[in-house]
Amino acid sequence: MPQPVRRQYWDVPNCDTSEAYARRLDDQDPLRAFRERFHLPAGTIYLDGNSLGLLSVDAERSLLRALDEWKTLGIRGWLEAQSPWFYFAENLGAKAAQLVGAEADEVVLTGTTTVNIHALVASFYRPSEPVRTKILADELNFPSDIFALKGQLKLRGADPAQDLLLVPSADGRTLDEEAIIALMTDEVQLVFLPSVLYRSGQLLDIERLVQAAHARGIVIGFDCSHSAGAVPHHFDAWGVDFAVWCSYKYLNAGPGSSAFLYVNRRHFTREPLLAGWFGCVKERQFEMALDFEPQASAGGWQISSPGILGSAALEGSLAITLEAGIDRVRAKSVALTEYLIDLVDAQLSASPYNFVVGTPREPARRSGHVALERREEAYRISVALRNRGVIPDFRKPDVIRVAPVALYNSYHDVWQLVQHLRQIIDDREHEAVPPAQDLIT
Ligand SMILES: *Cc1c(COP(=O)(O)O)cnc(C)c1O
Question: Does any ligand 1 atom lie closer than 6 A to the CB of residue 113?
Answer without folding.
Answer: yes
